[in-house]
Here is the input.
Amino acid sequence: MPDGQTDLVLLSQFFALCTTYSNPLYFRYEEGGDMSWSIGFDSTWNRDIGYGVPAECDHPDCHEKIDRGLAYVCGGEPYGGDNGCGLYFCGKHLTAAGQLCERCVDELAWFEKKPDVKEWVRHKLTDPSWAEWRLDHADEVARMKKEDHDDTNG
Ligand SMILES: [Zn+2]
Ligand SMILES: [Zn+2]
Here is the structure.
């Protein structure tokens, strides 16, 4: 294949990939122009996702620290794709083939989601990058602050 044609094929593959993951919620341009799946929002489970979000494995018996990036999502895609529940699990609680949790392997009712880790709640409540979000979500901020306070005081 002549060089120009190879480039064209690579380019078309690149654009196919972009179209697959074109949901703007899942991408934002980081400084330097790299497109990455850092922070997004899962409207099914109603929580923040992406590799920028620290979390605990959603398996009820597990406290492994993970993040909500693609490497940990049941189903291998945001929202879980066609076969997964879209919850987030550590390596021990996902199958190697298909990247599924035990409930989805057996097609049982999904696990409950776990709450966000404190580290993440406090980040959202204090970090400048969430200042605008806080202005738009006063009710949720109040709720988060209350829960954080209640937790701290037993
Ligand atoms: Zn699952
Ligand atoms: Zn786990």
